[in-house]
Amino acid sequence: MNQPAYKHWHVERDNDAIVWLHIDVGSTNSNNSANVLSSSVLDELNEILEKLTYELPRGVIVLSDKPNGFIAGADVKEFVPLKETAEALVLLRRGQRAMNRLAELKCPTVALIHGFCLGGGMELALACRYRIADEDPRTRLGLPEIKLGIHPGFGGTVRLPPLIGAPAAMDLMLTGKTIDARTAKKIGLIDYAVPARHLKRAAMSVIMNPPAPHRPGFIQSLTNKGFIRNILASAMRHRVAEKASEAHYPAPYALIDLWVKHAHDPVKMMEEEAASVARFVLGKTAHNLVRVFFLQERLKSLGKKTLIAPQHVHVIGGGVMGGDIAIWCALQGLRVTVQETRHDAMAKVIKRAYALFKKRFKQPRLIQAAMDRLIPDDKGVGVSHADVVIEAIFEDILAKQALYREIEPKMKAGALLATNTSSIPLEILSEALAKPSRLVGIHFFNPVAQMQLVEVVSSFITDPVVTRQAAAFVRHIDRLPLPVKSSPGFLVNRVLMPYLLEAVTMEWEGVPAAMIDKAALDFGMPMGPIRLADTVGLDICLSVAEILSQRLNVDVPPRLRELVSAGRLGVKSGQGFYTYHGDKPQIPRAKPGYTPPADIAERLMLRLLNEAAACLREGVVADADLLDAGIIFGTGFAPFRGGPINYVQEAGVDIQRKKLHELEQHYGKRFVADAEWAEL
Amino acid sequence: MRQNFQPSDFDEVILGCVMPGPDEANIARVVALRLGCGKHVPAWTVQRNCASGMQALDCAARNIALGRAHLILAGGVEAMSHAPVLLNNDMVTWLGEWSAERNFGARLAALSKLRAGHFKPIIGLLRGLTDPVVGLSMGQTAENLAHRFNISRERMDAFALESHRRLAKAQDDKLLGEIETLYDTQGHAYEHDDGLRRGKDHEDDMAKMAKLKPVFDRHFGNVTAGNSAQITDGAALLILASAEAVEKYKLPVLGRIIDVQWAGLEPAQMGLGPAHSMAPIMQRHGLAIQDIDYWEINEAFAAQVLACLEAWKDSDYCRTELGLDRAFGEIDLARLNVDGGGVSLGHPVGASGARIVLHLLNVLKRTKTRRGMASLCIGGGQGGAMLVESGRE
Fold first, then answer.
1. Across the interface, which of B1, B34, B181 has its CB nearest the CB of A343?
2. Per-residue confidence at A1, pLDDT binned at 50, 70, 90?
3. Domains held by chain B: number
4. What was the ipTM of the complex prediction?
5. Which one of B34, B186, B191 has the shortest CB-CB distance to A351?
6. C-alpha dihedral over A486, A489, A490, A496, to 10 degrees?
7. CA of A3: how far to CAs of A16, B8, B386, in Å?
8. pLDDT confidence of residue B121
9. CB B257 within 8 A of CB B354
10. Radius of gyration of chain A (CA)
11. Does residue A211 lie in a domain region?
12. Cβ-Cβ contacts under 8 Å for A518 (sequence gap 6 or more)
């Protein structure tokens, strides 16, 4: 009854002549917890489908035997060694062929989806006649290829727009966002969203009594017609341009072109899809974005979740950082007590929490459950129940030390004690403890809900076991841990600060703030340095700068002090370098005929790169990849450039060093090249 | 979390609530789960109108006495601001017909039968506060008592003002340590009950109180919004434990429940419930008025509390209604509701019974005294009283 054994697939024919095609990608794959469509998986699938074409089963149901999901996508690792377009084409055509065979089966076909169904997995589901998904919120569907600098290449661009209409289809592919089963049902991406207990019954029922396959509504189907495509395309290009420039991120633009030119001819479009993806896979953007993807995987692997099983987090200090850390932990399902005696501050935390939970959970029951997990604790009774205690009070050595003395005896044995300090060396703080080796830094970035990176800081006295547990905790709350050495500014603030201060200096020299920001944006930074300084708060910038200037080669520009003493603190005071209406800066018009200096971007970036080199030399992080990862996920540093060190290497170490030398001649010793440049 | 045990160590959770929301009929279970007691801790809700919270404590005490439980979370909750507005019967019938009709024409016909009267809502809260047997609102029963014991509008108003004065002082002196700060989702903190009115001076306040219109007997009545309990939301929870559990978890003991009495009386006179329920306890334990250090009589209405005091002073009432051989005597106002009551901080009906017991125990602890009596009148013609003592022995 059963077919010959395959490595990744299991073919089962039941009494109704329905073939159940189980995917369970073998453990030789290093990413063995998830199904990915590697070449060998696709080869087997092609073989199986070829047989099924002649065997004519009653129907075919594709499902995953992995508990965590359906199929996570193509095997990204296979992109890395590609050198020639022809090689890439072979890989893509193999996938397209499998999907086409599946689509051409005469019998009804069902993709039975739970957990993630992404990229190539989603394209496989699209090649089935029906899609049925588990309604559980853990089900995530999407085509995130764009985030790797490519676009769908296994027929997804061909099959999706006719199925659900161009606006929804292009939105999914251009943003790379993932959606849950309910939303997918609403837009027609899947036919049914059912509870897990009904998944198999639903699939069988669809095979035994096949309904008409999904068709888009009348309006939706119009959106793929010739002249309408042109109108929609220009709107799409416009929207994409707001997010990413064509020079830095060409794939979304190519995806729109592909659809506009070929949507009427699926066969041709299939060929062009493969050609387009093959081109991008070999390009620099995709290369670096794939690199970023693997850097992210590496950061994830630095926190082994099994090392700690946190249930309860106690956060001390309900200010902006403490409050947001607490809110984030509650969002991630942990019970959180927030120790804060100022009731007005606590009230603000609850307000922010409600706003975030409402946005993320939508369903009132889930919002309420999250609110219940976040417990105001003005007496600090949570400390003795917590598995993790995070101190986030104001930056004062004596206050922190006094607090540690008070809480250490109350804490559970083995509970983690972490500080969110950004400027005080851990070895000094830990002097107050009976067991100094238990203190670790867990340094979050503002805004906590958006910044994925968390620096896990250890001093020479910190127990390595504690450091690993802290990194594991960071994974439990779905952030990326970066182990760093306790040294001034750790990694992210230290590398960022010279760049910010150079911007402040230029502004003081008379370069309009908007020009400085534009240069940084053109380089690919997510926000200009002047605006970033305003957003962080100039008082905070000043205090970090002053702390760093005591230990490092950093001068604090007088302009910063001047603004702070004038009460111009940035967005929060309504005025900093810019004047704000709400969060929006008022950009003064540039003087006519003014030409900004040509070296803005160079001055900014080389200060950043030089400091990054210094961090590497001092061993603030273990290696160059971790440095790149930290700067990308901690500052938003242009991901398509693959990180500062990667950028220097791509742009040429000698060229950059020469530029640095020129800047030194011109602007002085702050541009002296770090000794590490010789090693890059 | 303040305690030396886990929420899942509770044997059960018992809460009083008069009007739980339609989606949380057994609100005790909802509270238990949301507090993190876990799925294995059973929970049930009790209802004895205004004394539901005290009933919960009684049930808990009884289960512990019977040896069926050692550690119980008990108290009361009420969200009167969430009381439902109901559809009237005509509307319900119409909706039934509407959803039974399948085709457009029939629906149109059904629509044409809809009249303005269908939309007249039933305010759940008002229904809840009306006695269906005698057809009187709670306020009207208070008017009855005022009439019977000849309690003037001025006395009621003065009593009400005193309640506010005492609460204000208690808040200022931070005597309400058992109250937790609440937060809403809009960024506000509520450190105190917001029912408190702080006036200018006594004369001015009395003048303002005198201006309020009677609510229940319009035009000629005496009971106003000012001298009645405020309709509020609230919750009060206590941990009740057996001697064994106290030992096991090393619990700090605030006090003990000595005795409980429930009494029935004429529904139209329900406000005298405390007089009827406290008397048997006093007799059983051979206590005279001065043996009780502090009293809490829930302030449903100023007139009703004053009537209870009058009843105990009235030898005629004590003989005929309470079966005593003479008047019981006079409760010292200085020892009654010392930190304000329902008039000033509100009467969330299901919670008040637990709140006054908890607060009474705190008063005993603060004043280092021993014996306290808490009592409530109960809509429908009942009274409940609980005798407590502070400390372990």
1. B181
2. very low
3. 3
4. 0.85
5. B186
6. -170
7. 16, 52, 77
8. 76
9. no
10. 27
11. yes
12. A528
pLDDT in tens, B165-191: 999 999 999 998 888 888 999 999 988
CATH code for the domain in which residue B239 is found = 3.40.47.10
Chain B residues touching residue A376 (CB < 8 angstroms): 181, 183
Residues A268 and A322 in one domain: no
Q: Are residues A597 and A457 in the same domain?
A: no
A109: left (phi over 0), alpha (psi -120 to 50) or beta: beta
* Domain identity same for A505 and A650: yes
On average, the pLDDT of chain A sits at 93
Q: Tell how strand A36-37 and strand A73-74 pair up.
A: parallel
Q: Are B196 and B167 contacting, i.e. CB atoms less than 8 angstroms apart?
A: yes
Tell me how close the Cα of B254 comes to any Cα of chain A, in angstroms.
19
Q: What is the CATH number of the domain that holds A665?
A: 1.10.1040.50
Q: How many CB atoms lie within 10 A of CB A305?
A: 14
Residue A364 near chain B (CB below 8 Å): no
Residues A139 and A233 in one domain: yes
Q: Which of B126, B101, B125 is nearest to B112 (CA)?
A: B101
Q: Do B187 and A348 touch (CB under 8 A)?
A: yes
Which of B185, B188, B192, B250 should one mutate to test binding to chain A, selecting the residue with the greatest count of A CBs within 10 A? B185
Cα separation of A76 and A120, whole Å?
A: 11
Look at A343 and B187 and tell me if their CB atoms are within 8 Å. no
Structural domain count of chain A? 3
Is-cis flag, bond preceding A250, omega within 30? no
Mind listing the pLDDT tens digit for each residue in A536-557?
889 989 988 888 888 777 788 9
Q: Flag whether residue A412 sits within 8 Å of chain B, measured between CB atoms.
A: no
Q: Are B161 and B257 in a shared domain?
A: yes
Element holding B257 (H helix, E strand): strand B255-264
Per-residue tokens: B14 = 């018992």
**Please, are residues B210 and B226 in contact by the beta-carbon 8 Å criterion?**
no
Q: Which of residues 157-196 of B touch A (CB under 8 A)?
A: 181, 183-189, 191
**Same domain? B161 vs B180:** yes
pLDDT score of A475 more than 70:
yes
Judge: B187–A347 Cβ closer than 8 Å, yes or no. yes
**Contacts of A194 by beta carbon, 8 Å cutoff, 6+ apart:** A132, A133, A134, A135, A202
Over residues A176-202, mean pLDDT: 96
Q: Which of A65, A59, A60, A56 is nearest to A22 (CA)?
A: A65
Tokens of B304: 């009703």
- Give chain B positions within 8 Å (CB) of A350: 183-185, 187
Structure tokens at A289: 């974005």
- Strands A130-134 and A140-142, by their bridges, are unpaired
Q: B123: alpha, beta or left, given left = phi > 0 and alpha = psi -120 to 50?
A: beta
Domain residues for the domain of B173 are 136-230+253-390
Tell which of B249, B282, B308 closes a domain: B249
Torsion of Cα atoms, A171 then A172 then A173 then A177, to 10° = 120
Q: How confident is the model at residue A27 (pLDDT cuts 50, 70, 90)?
A: low
Helix, strand or coil, per DSSP, at residue A224: coil
A108 plus A252 within the same structural domain:
yes
pLDDT given for residue A594 in this prediction: 85
Active site residues of B: 50, 347, 377
Closest-CA residue in chain B for A368? B34
Domain boundary among A486, A507, A536: A486
Q: What is the pLDDT of residues B295-339, one digit of tens each?
A: 999 999 999 999 999 999 999 999 999 999 999 999 999 999 999
